[in-house]
Design a protein that fits this description.
Layout: H1 2-17, E1 25-33, H2 40-50, E2 60-66, E3 68-72, E4 78-81, E5 98-101, E6 106-113
Parallel strand pairs: 1-2
Antiparallel strand pairs: 1-6, 3-4, 3-5
Helix pairs in contact: 1-2
The chain binds zinc ion.
Length: about 120
C-alpha cells in the first residue's frame, strides 16, 4: 500500500535527521502534491503505528498539499488545478494544448524536536 511505504520513508528520514539520538521528534511537516494521491488519515494511522517505540513516537504529522497547474503550450497561460474536477486538456484562453505541471512532489518541510 502506497501510504505505508510513504510513512516508512518519512520515519526513516526523520530518524536519520535527528542531531542527537536521544532527542524526541514532536512535529513533522510533510508536503505532498495533490496528484500524489495520499489519503491523510491513512498516512497518519500508518505513521503513528510505525513510530511506536522510536524517537518519533507521538509526533504530530502535519500534511500540507501543494497544487498542480495547467500550463498552455501555446500561450503560456497558467491555471491552478487542485486535484479535483475535470482535467482541462485545452487552454481556456487560446484553445492550445495544456500540460499538467507539478502536484506530484513529496518532501519533508520541517522537523521539530524537543528542546
Ligand atoms: Zn493558451
Amino acid at each position: 500500500m502506497h501510504e505505508s511505504a510513504i510513512a516508512t520513508s518519512i520515519l526513516d528520514l526523520v530518524l536519520h535527521a535527528l542531531p542527537a539520538p536521544r532527542q524526541r521528534i514532536t512535529k513533522i511537516t510533510f508536503v505532498a502534491g495533490v496528484l500524489a494521491g495520499i489519503e491523510p488519515s491513512c498516512l497518519e494511522v500508518y505513521f503513528s503505528e510505525l513510530a511506536k517505540e522510536t524517537a518519533a513516537e507521538n509526533a504530530e504529522l502535519i500534511l500540507k498539499y501543494t497544487d498542480a497547474e495547467f500550463v498552455c503550450q501555446t500561450c503560456g497561460y497558467r491555471e491552478l488545478f487542485e486535484g479535483r474536477g475535470r482535467v482541462k486538456i485545452e487552454c481556456e484562453r487560446c484553445g492550445g494544448l495544456n500540460r499538467l505541471q507539478g502536484g506530484s512532489e513529496m518532501y519533508i518541510e520541517q522537523i521539530e524536536v524537543e528542546q
